[in-house]
Protein backbone atom coordinates (compact mmCIF):
# COMPACT_ATOMS: atom_id res chain seq x y z
CA UNK A 1 0.00 0.00 0.00
CA UNK A 2 1.38 3.44 -0.92
CA UNK A 3 0.86 6.71 0.92
CA UNK A 4 -1.43 7.92 -1.87
CA UNK A 5 -3.85 5.09 -1.13
CA UNK A 6 -3.98 5.63 2.61
CA UNK A 7 -6.69 8.33 2.84
CA UNK A 8 -9.18 6.46 0.68
CA UNK A 9 -8.29 2.89 1.65
CA UNK A 10 -7.58 3.21 5.38
CA UNK A 11 -8.48 6.52 7.00
CA UNK A 12 -12.10 7.39 7.73
CA UNK A 13 -14.18 9.53 10.07
CA UNK A 14 -15.71 6.53 11.85
CA UNK A 15 -12.64 6.29 14.09
CA UNK A 16 -12.56 9.19 16.58
CA UNK A 17 -8.83 9.34 17.33
CA UNK A 18 -7.44 10.05 20.82
CA UNK A 19 -5.20 13.06 21.48
CA UNK A 20 -4.85 13.71 17.74
CA UNK A 21 -4.80 16.93 15.72
CA UNK A 22 -7.51 15.83 13.31
CA UNK A 23 -6.96 18.34 10.53
CA UNK A 24 -3.24 17.77 10.26
CA UNK A 25 -3.63 14.00 10.40
CA UNK A 26 -6.31 13.91 7.72
CA UNK A 27 -4.10 15.94 5.39
CA UNK A 28 -1.09 13.70 5.96
CA UNK A 29 -2.03 10.40 7.67
CA UNK A 30 0.70 8.53 9.53
CA UNK A 31 -0.25 4.86 9.43
CA UNK A 32 1.72 2.15 11.27
CA UNK A 33 1.22 -1.38 9.96
CA UNK A 34 3.96 -3.30 11.76
CA UNK A 35 6.71 -3.20 14.37
CA UNK A 36 9.89 -5.12 15.02
CA UNK A 37 12.50 -4.77 17.75
CA UNK A 38 13.04 -1.01 18.14
CA UNK A 39 11.29 0.12 14.97
CA UNK A 40 7.81 0.90 13.70
CA UNK A 41 6.94 0.08 10.09
CA UNK A 42 4.79 2.51 8.11
CA UNK A 43 2.27 1.73 5.39
CA UNK A 44 4.84 2.34 2.65
CA UNK A 45 7.28 -0.12 4.24
CA UNK A 46 9.63 2.44 5.80
CA UNK A 47 11.16 1.75 9.21
CA UNK A 48 11.15 4.42 11.91
CA UNK A 49 13.15 4.17 15.13
CA UNK A 50 10.68 4.13 18.03
CA UNK A 51 12.15 6.72 20.38
CA UNK A 52 9.24 6.51 22.86
CA UNK A 53 8.81 2.73 23.18
CA UNK A 54 5.38 3.03 21.56
CA UNK A 55 3.84 5.28 24.18
CA UNK A 56 6.24 4.68 27.08
CA UNK A 57 5.24 1.00 27.15
CA UNK A 58 7.30 -1.26 24.83
CA UNK A 59 10.59 -0.99 26.69
CA UNK A 60 11.55 -4.59 25.89
CA UNK A 61 11.24 -4.00 22.15
CA UNK A 62 8.33 -4.80 19.87
CA UNK A 63 6.77 -8.14 18.98
CA UNK A 64 8.56 -10.30 21.51
CA UNK A 65 7.78 -13.92 20.52
CA UNK A 66 7.81 -15.02 24.17
CA UNK A 67 4.87 -12.73 24.93
CA UNK A 68 3.03 -13.70 21.75
CA UNK A 69 3.43 -17.39 22.57
CA UNK A 70 2.19 -16.89 26.13
CA UNK A 71 -0.87 -14.96 24.92
CA UNK A 72 -1.63 -17.53 22.22
CA UNK A 73 -1.39 -20.42 24.65
CA UNK A 74 -3.56 -18.66 27.21
CA UNK A 75 -6.26 -17.91 24.62
CA UNK A 76 -6.44 -21.63 23.91
CA UNK A 77 -6.62 -22.50 27.62
CA UNK A 78 -8.70 -19.87 29.40
CA UNK A 79 -9.76 -16.85 27.36
CA UNK A 80 -11.79 -15.23 30.15
CA UNK A 81 -12.55 -15.89 33.78
CA UNK A 82 -15.10 -13.93 35.83
CA UNK A 83 -13.13 -11.80 38.29
CA UNK A 84 -15.99 -11.23 40.74
CA UNK A 85 -16.17 -14.01 43.35
CA UNK A 86 -13.91 -16.31 41.28
CA UNK A 87 -10.16 -16.45 40.69
CA UNK A 88 -7.72 -18.02 38.25
CA UNK A 89 -4.12 -19.08 38.92
CA UNK A 90 -2.28 -16.48 36.84
CA UNK A 91 -3.75 -13.51 38.71
CA UNK A 92 -2.41 -14.83 41.99
CA UNK A 93 0.96 -15.67 40.41
CA UNK A 94 1.30 -12.20 38.90
CA UNK A 95 0.31 -10.44 42.12
CA UNK A 96 2.95 -12.41 44.03
CA UNK A 97 5.54 -11.64 41.33
CA UNK A 98 4.84 -7.90 41.52
CA UNK A 99 4.92 -7.71 45.31
CA UNK A 100 8.19 -9.63 45.21
CA UNK A 101 9.88 -6.97 43.08
CA UNK A 102 8.19 -3.83 44.45
CA UNK A 103 9.49 -1.95 47.52
CA UNK A 104 8.84 -4.12 50.58
CA UNK A 105 5.89 -2.26 52.17
CA UNK A 106 3.79 -2.74 49.01
CA UNK A 107 2.32 -6.20 49.56
CA UNK A 108 -1.07 -6.30 47.81
CA UNK A 109 -2.17 -5.82 44.19
CA UNK A 110 -5.48 -4.73 42.68
CA UNK A 111 -5.61 -5.22 38.90
CA UNK A 112 -7.00 -2.68 36.44
CA UNK A 113 -6.87 -2.30 32.66
CA UNK A 114 -4.92 0.93 32.18
CA UNK A 115 -3.01 3.68 33.89
CA UNK A 116 -6.12 5.84 33.94
CA UNK A 117 -8.04 3.11 35.77
CA UNK A 118 -5.12 2.65 38.15
CA UNK A 119 -5.28 6.36 39.03
CA UNK A 120 -9.01 6.29 39.71
CA UNK A 121 -8.71 3.04 41.65
CA UNK A 122 -5.90 4.34 43.86
CA UNK A 123 -7.87 7.47 44.71
CA UNK A 124 -11.01 5.50 45.53
CA UNK A 125 -9.00 3.17 47.75
CA UNK A 126 -7.47 6.17 49.54
CA UNK A 127 -10.88 7.67 50.32
CA UNK A 128 -12.31 4.32 51.38
CA UNK A 129 -9.29 3.65 53.59
CA UNK A 130 -9.88 6.79 55.64
CA UNK A 131 -13.55 5.91 56.04
CA UNK A 132 -12.58 2.46 57.25
CA UNK A 133 -10.05 4.12 59.59
CA UNK A 134 -12.76 6.30 61.14
CA UNK A 135 -11.70 9.57 59.47
CA UNK A 136 -14.37 10.12 56.79
CA UNK A 137 -13.62 13.85 56.47
CA UNK A 138 -10.34 13.04 54.69
CA UNK A 139 -11.66 13.32 51.13
CA UNK A 140 -9.57 15.98 49.39
CA UNK A 141 -6.74 15.11 47.01
CA UNK A 142 -3.57 17.00 46.13
CA UNK A 143 -2.03 16.63 42.66
CA UNK A 144 0.76 18.59 41.02
CA UNK A 145 0.95 21.17 38.23
CA UNK A 146 2.23 19.56 35.01
CA UNK A 147 1.30 16.14 36.38
CA UNK A 148 -0.57 13.51 34.36
CA UNK A 149 -2.72 10.73 35.80
CA UNK A 150 -4.66 9.57 32.80
CA UNK A 151 -7.93 10.85 31.44
CA UNK A 152 -10.62 9.28 33.60
CA UNK A 153 -12.68 11.48 35.91
CA UNK A 154 -10.36 11.55 38.92
CA UNK A 155 -7.16 11.44 36.88
CA UNK A 156 -8.23 14.47 34.86
CA UNK A 157 -9.08 16.34 38.06
CA UNK A 158 -5.75 15.60 39.73
CA UNK A 159 -3.66 16.08 36.60
CA UNK A 160 -1.94 19.42 36.17
CA UNK A 161 -1.90 19.87 32.39
CA UNK A 162 -4.32 22.68 31.55
CA UNK A 163 -4.89 21.55 27.97
CA UNK A 164 -6.27 18.24 29.26
CA UNK A 165 -8.70 19.92 31.67
CA UNK A 166 -10.08 23.14 30.20
CA UNK A 167 -12.63 21.49 27.89
CA UNK A 168 -14.24 19.54 30.73
CA UNK A 169 -14.52 22.10 33.50
CA UNK A 170 -14.23 21.40 37.22
CA UNK A 171 -14.59 17.67 37.83
CA UNK A 172 -13.57 16.94 41.41
CA UNK A 173 -12.32 18.55 44.61
CA UNK A 174 -8.58 18.85 44.15
CA UNK A 175 -5.68 21.22 44.71
CA UNK A 176 -2.16 21.16 43.30
CA UNK A 177 1.45 21.43 44.34
CA UNK A 178 3.78 23.48 42.13
CA UNK A 179 5.76 21.60 39.51
CA UNK A 180 9.45 20.85 39.97
CA UNK A 181 10.74 22.52 36.79
CA UNK A 182 13.14 25.18 38.09
CA UNK A 183 14.73 27.68 35.71
CA UNK A 184 18.12 27.27 37.38
CA UNK A 185 18.11 23.55 36.50
CA UNK A 186 18.01 24.14 32.74
CA UNK A 187 20.31 21.76 30.82
CA UNK A 188 21.07 19.70 33.92
CA UNK A 189 22.36 16.24 33.09
CA UNK A 190 20.41 13.76 35.18
CA UNK A 191 18.82 14.64 38.51
CA UNK A 192 19.09 18.21 39.84
CA UNK A 193 19.98 18.75 43.49
CA UNK A 194 17.93 20.09 46.39
CA UNK A 195 14.24 20.83 45.97
CA UNK A 196 13.00 20.70 49.57
CA UNK A 197 11.30 24.06 49.12
CA UNK A 198 9.08 22.66 46.36
CA UNK A 199 7.84 19.88 48.62
CA UNK A 200 7.42 22.31 51.51
CA UNK A 201 4.58 23.96 49.59
CA UNK A 202 2.47 21.08 50.89
CA UNK A 203 2.57 22.84 54.27
CA UNK A 204 0.67 25.75 52.75
CA UNK A 205 -1.99 23.43 51.34
CA UNK A 206 -2.31 21.73 54.73
CA UNK A 207 -2.75 25.14 56.37
CA UNK A 208 -5.41 26.01 53.77
CA UNK A 209 -7.41 22.76 53.76
CA UNK A 210 -6.34 21.16 57.09
CA UNK A 211 -4.82 17.69 57.11
CA UNK A 212 -8.03 16.28 58.60
CA UNK A 213 -9.63 16.86 55.19
CA UNK A 214 -6.82 15.62 52.92
CA UNK A 215 -6.85 11.96 51.87
CA UNK A 216 -3.78 11.72 49.65
CA UNK A 217 -1.12 13.38 47.56
CA UNK A 218 -0.61 11.84 44.13
CA UNK A 219 2.48 12.57 42.02
CA UNK A 220 4.52 10.95 39.29
CA UNK A 221 8.05 10.34 40.58
CA UNK A 222 9.12 11.87 37.25
CA UNK A 223 6.49 13.86 35.38
CA UNK A 224 6.55 12.07 32.02
CA UNK A 225 3.82 13.44 29.78
CA UNK A 226 4.40 16.92 31.20
CA UNK A 227 7.84 16.88 29.58
CA UNK A 228 10.17 14.54 31.53
CA UNK A 229 10.40 16.82 34.55
CA UNK A 230 12.99 15.22 36.81
CA UNK A 231 12.51 15.68 40.57
CA UNK A 232 15.36 17.38 42.44
CA UNK A 233 17.19 14.98 44.74
CA UNK A 234 15.61 16.09 48.03
CA UNK A 235 12.06 16.60 46.74
CA UNK A 236 10.42 13.18 47.01
CA UNK A 237 12.04 12.20 50.36
CA UNK A 238 10.82 15.53 51.76
CA UNK A 239 7.33 15.00 50.35
CA UNK A 240 7.28 11.53 51.92
CA UNK A 241 8.26 13.01 55.31
CA UNK A 242 5.57 15.67 55.13
CA UNK A 243 2.87 13.15 54.26
CA UNK A 244 3.97 11.12 57.28
CA UNK A 245 3.89 14.22 59.47
CA UNK A 246 0.35 15.13 58.48
CA UNK A 247 -1.05 11.60 58.21
CA UNK A 248 -1.69 11.88 54.45
CA UNK A 249 -1.34 8.96 52.05
CA UNK A 250 1.29 9.29 49.32
CA UNK A 251 0.48 7.81 45.92
CA UNK A 252 3.14 7.36 43.24
CA UNK A 253 1.85 7.17 39.69
CA UNK A 254 4.53 4.90 38.21
CA UNK A 255 2.67 4.11 35.01
CA UNK A 256 5.62 5.60 33.09
CA UNK A 257 8.46 5.25 35.60
CA UNK A 258 7.79 1.64 36.55
CA UNK A 259 9.91 -1.24 35.20
CA UNK A 260 13.38 0.29 34.71
CA UNK A 261 12.56 3.56 32.94
CA UNK A 262 14.46 5.54 35.60
CA UNK A 263 17.38 3.11 35.68
CA UNK A 264 15.93 1.23 38.66
CA UNK A 265 13.01 -1.16 38.83
CA UNK A 266 10.72 1.64 40.03
CA UNK A 267 10.93 5.38 40.47
CA UNK A 268 10.56 4.79 44.21
CA UNK A 269 13.87 2.93 44.10
CA UNK A 270 15.57 5.54 41.95
CA UNK A 271 14.51 8.59 43.96
CA UNK A 272 14.64 7.26 47.50
CA UNK A 273 11.02 7.51 48.64
CA UNK A 274 8.43 4.77 49.08
CA UNK A 275 4.72 5.52 48.64
CA UNK A 276 1.70 4.03 50.38
CA UNK A 277 0.12 3.24 47.02
CA UNK A 278 1.78 2.68 43.64
CA UNK A 279 0.06 2.75 40.24
CA UNK A 280 1.42 0.66 37.34
CA UNK A 281 0.52 -0.07 33.69
CA UNK A 282 2.24 0.25 30.27
CA UNK A 283 5.46 -1.82 30.52
CA UNK A 284 3.65 -4.27 32.81
CA UNK A 285 2.74 -6.19 29.64
CA UNK A 286 5.27 -4.48 27.35
CA UNK A 287 2.26 -2.81 25.74
CA UNK A 288 1.00 -6.09 24.28
CA UNK A 289 -2.28 -6.29 26.21
CA UNK A 290 -3.98 -3.50 28.18
CA UNK A 291 -3.39 -3.93 31.90
CA UNK A 292 -2.77 -1.89 35.03
CA UNK A 293 -2.18 -2.54 38.71
CA UNK A 294 -2.44 -0.73 42.03
CA UNK A 295 -0.12 -1.84 44.83
CA UNK A 296 -0.83 -0.99 48.46
CA UNK A 297 0.72 -1.46 51.86
CA UNK A 298 -0.53 -4.14 54.20
CA UNK A 299 -1.88 -1.44 56.53
CA UNK A 300 -4.23 -0.20 53.82
CA UNK A 301 -5.28 -3.70 52.81
CA UNK A 302 -5.92 -4.79 56.38
CA UNK A 303 -8.28 -1.85 56.93
CA UNK A 304 -10.72 -3.64 54.64
CA UNK A 305 -10.24 -7.09 56.16
CA UNK A 306 -12.71 -8.07 58.89
CA UNK A 307 -12.63 -11.72 59.84
CA UNK A 308 -15.97 -11.25 61.62
CA UNK A 309 -17.81 -10.23 58.46
CA UNK A 310 -20.33 -12.75 57.11
CA UNK A 311 -19.05 -14.90 54.26
CA UNK A 312 -21.18 -13.13 51.65
CA UNK A 313 -20.01 -9.58 52.52
CA UNK A 314 -17.83 -7.76 49.96
CA UNK A 315 -14.93 -5.86 51.53
CA UNK A 316 -14.17 -3.49 48.63
CA UNK A 317 -17.07 -2.80 46.23
CA UNK A 318 -14.84 -1.88 43.30
CA UNK A 319 -13.51 -3.69 40.25
CA UNK A 320 -13.64 -4.09 36.48
CA UNK A 321 -14.95 -6.81 34.18
CA UNK A 322 -11.41 -7.34 32.95
CA UNK A 323 -9.56 -7.01 36.28
CA UNK A 324 -6.77 -9.58 36.24
CA UNK A 325 -7.79 -10.82 32.80
CA UNK A 326 -6.09 -14.20 32.19
CA UNK A 327 -4.65 -13.19 28.82
CA UNK A 328 -3.28 -9.94 30.25
CA UNK A 329 -1.79 -11.87 33.17
CA UNK A 330 -0.10 -14.28 30.75
CA UNK A 331 1.38 -11.34 28.83
CA UNK A 332 2.56 -9.70 32.06
CA UNK A 333 4.21 -12.85 33.40
CA UNK A 334 6.00 -13.39 30.09
CA UNK A 335 7.10 -9.75 30.15
CA UNK A 336 8.50 -10.09 33.66
CA UNK A 337 10.32 -13.27 32.64
CA UNK A 338 12.09 -11.32 29.87
CA UNK A 339 12.59 -8.36 32.21
CA UNK A 340 14.53 -10.56 34.62
CA UNK A 341 16.27 -12.90 32.17
CA UNK A 342 17.65 -10.06 30.03
CA UNK A 343 18.39 -7.75 32.98
CA UNK A 344 16.40 -4.79 31.71
CA UNK A 345 17.41 -2.71 34.73
CA UNK A 346 21.05 -3.33 33.82
CA UNK A 347 20.38 -2.50 30.17
CA UNK A 348 18.68 0.74 31.18
CA UNK A 349 21.66 1.70 33.34
CA UNK A 350 24.06 0.89 30.50
CA UNK A 351 22.19 2.88 27.86
CA UNK A 352 21.22 5.84 30.04
CA UNK A 353 24.58 7.65 29.64
CA UNK A 354 24.33 7.18 25.86
CA UNK A 355 20.85 8.73 25.78
CA UNK A 356 22.07 11.56 27.99
CA UNK A 357 25.00 12.32 25.70
CA UNK A 358 22.80 12.07 22.59
CA UNK A 359 20.28 14.59 23.88
CA UNK A 360 22.73 17.02 25.48
CA UNK A 361 24.89 17.04 22.34
CA UNK A 362 22.02 19.04 20.82
CA UNK A 363 22.56 21.97 23.18
CA UNK A 364 23.03 25.06 21.05
CA UNK A 365 20.90 23.70 18.21
CA UNK A 366 18.11 26.01 17.00
CA UNK A 367 14.93 26.36 19.07
CA UNK A 368 16.04 24.40 22.16
CA UNK A 369 15.49 26.16 25.51
CA UNK A 370 16.18 23.20 27.82
CA UNK A 371 17.27 19.55 27.80
CA UNK A 372 16.29 17.14 30.59
CA UNK A 373 17.00 13.47 31.22
CA UNK A 374 17.00 10.74 33.80
CA UNK A 375 17.50 7.03 33.21
CA UNK A 376 16.10 6.06 29.83
CA UNK A 377 13.90 9.15 29.50
CA UNK A 378 14.53 12.65 28.25
CA UNK A 379 13.03 15.72 26.67
CA UNK A 380 13.93 18.68 24.52
CA UNK A 381 12.02 21.82 25.44
CA UNK A 382 11.27 23.84 22.32
CA UNK A 383 10.99 27.62 22.11
CA UNK A 384 7.60 28.98 21.02
CA UNK A 385 7.07 30.62 17.65
CA UNK A 386 4.87 33.70 17.38
CA UNK A 387 3.53 33.01 20.86
CA UNK A 388 2.46 29.46 19.99
CA UNK A 389 4.25 26.82 22.08
CA UNK A 390 2.75 23.87 20.18
CA UNK A 391 3.53 24.53 16.55
CA UNK A 392 7.28 23.83 16.47
CA UNK A 393 7.10 20.53 18.37
CA UNK A 394 4.36 19.42 15.97
CA UNK A 395 6.39 20.38 12.91
CA UNK A 396 9.52 18.76 14.34
CA UNK A 397 7.62 15.54 15.06
CA UNK A 398 6.33 15.37 11.49
CA UNK A 399 9.74 16.15 10.05
CA UNK A 400 11.37 13.43 12.17
CA UNK A 401 8.77 10.87 11.06
CA UNK A 402 9.56 11.66 7.44
CA UNK A 403 13.25 11.01 8.23
CA UNK A 404 12.65 7.64 9.90
CA UNK A 405 12.23 8.65 13.56
CA UNK A 406 9.07 8.36 15.61
CA UNK A 407 9.15 10.98 18.36
CA UNK A 408 6.44 12.07 20.75
CA UNK A 409 5.61 15.75 20.78
CA UNK A 410 3.60 17.01 23.74
CA UNK A 411 3.07 20.61 24.77
CA UNK A 412 6.32 22.49 24.20
CA UNK A 413 8.51 19.38 24.30
CA UNK A 414 9.80 16.46 22.31
CA UNK A 415 9.86 13.42 24.61
CA UNK A 416 12.06 10.33 24.49
CA UNK A 417 11.93 6.91 26.12
CA UNK A 418 13.71 4.45 23.80
CA UNK A 419 13.44 0.70 24.26
CA UNK A 420 16.04 -0.68 26.66
CA UNK A 421 17.08 -3.01 23.84
CA UNK A 422 18.22 -0.19 21.57
CA UNK A 423 21.86 0.21 20.51
CA UNK A 424 24.33 3.07 20.55
CA UNK A 425 23.95 3.25 16.77
CA UNK A 426 20.17 3.63 17.17
CA UNK A 427 20.60 6.56 19.52
CA UNK A 428 23.35 8.06 17.41
CA UNK A 429 21.09 8.06 14.37
CA UNK A 430 18.29 9.53 16.49
CA UNK A 431 20.56 12.43 17.41
CA UNK A 432 21.46 13.02 13.77
CA UNK A 433 17.82 13.13 12.67
CA UNK A 434 16.92 15.51 15.50
CA UNK A 435 19.78 17.84 14.55
CA UNK A 436 18.67 17.84 10.91
CA UNK A 437 15.04 18.52 11.80
CA UNK A 438 15.91 21.31 14.22
CA UNK A 439 17.99 22.97 11.53
CA UNK A 440 15.20 22.74 8.96
CA UNK A 441 12.21 23.95 10.98
CA UNK A 442 11.68 27.70 11.09
What can you see in these coordinates?
It is a single chain. The protein is of the alpha/beta class and 442 residues long. The chain has two domains: 3-60 and 343-440, Aspartate Aminotransferase, domain 1 (Alpha-Beta Complex), CATH 3.90.1150; 68-341, 3-Layer(aba) Sandwich (Aspartate Aminotransferase, domain 2). The chain has helices spanning 6-9, 22-27, 53-56, 65-75, 89-101, 115-132, 153-158, 196-199, 201-209, 235-245, 267-271, 298-302, 326-341, 344-360, 391-402, 424-440; strands spanning 32-36, 39-42, 47-50, 106-112, 140-144, 174-177, 214-219, 249-253, 277-280, 292-297, 368-374, 377-382, 405-406, 408-410, 413-416. Strands 4-10-9-8-7-5-6 form a seven-stranded mixed beta sheet, sandwiched between helices. A hairpin with a 4-residue loop joins strand 2 and strand 3. The longest helix has 18 residues, at 115-132. The radius of gyration is 22 Å and the shape is globular. Residues 1-7 have low confidence and may be disordered.
Protein traits:
442 residues; alpha/beta; Aspartate Aminotransferase, domain 1; Aspartate Aminotransferase, domain 2; 4-stranded mixed beta sheet; globular
Flag low-confidence runs. Answer: 1-7
What is the first-to-last residue Cα distance?
A: 32 Å
- Helix content class: 25-40%
Query: What kind of sheet is the major sheet?
Result: 7 strands, mixed
Beta-strand segment tally: 15
CATH architectural designation of the largest domain: 3-Layer(aba) Sandwich
CATH class of the largest domain: Alpha Beta
Average pLDDT, rounded to a whole number, is 96
Overall morphology: globular
Strand order of the largest sheet: 4-10-9-8-7-5-6
Amino acid sequence: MTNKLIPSEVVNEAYWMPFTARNGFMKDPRIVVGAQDCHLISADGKRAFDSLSGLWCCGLGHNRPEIADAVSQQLRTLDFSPPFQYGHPLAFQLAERLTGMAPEPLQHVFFTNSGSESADTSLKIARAYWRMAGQPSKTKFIGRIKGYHGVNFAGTSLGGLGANRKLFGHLADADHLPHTLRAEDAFTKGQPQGGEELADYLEQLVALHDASNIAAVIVEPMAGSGGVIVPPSAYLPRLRALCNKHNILLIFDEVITGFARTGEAFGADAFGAIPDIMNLAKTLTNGAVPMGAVLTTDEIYQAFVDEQQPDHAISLPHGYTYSGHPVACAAALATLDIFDAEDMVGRARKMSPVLQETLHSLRGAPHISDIRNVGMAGALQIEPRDGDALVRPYELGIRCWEKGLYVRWGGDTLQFAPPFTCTEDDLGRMGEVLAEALGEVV
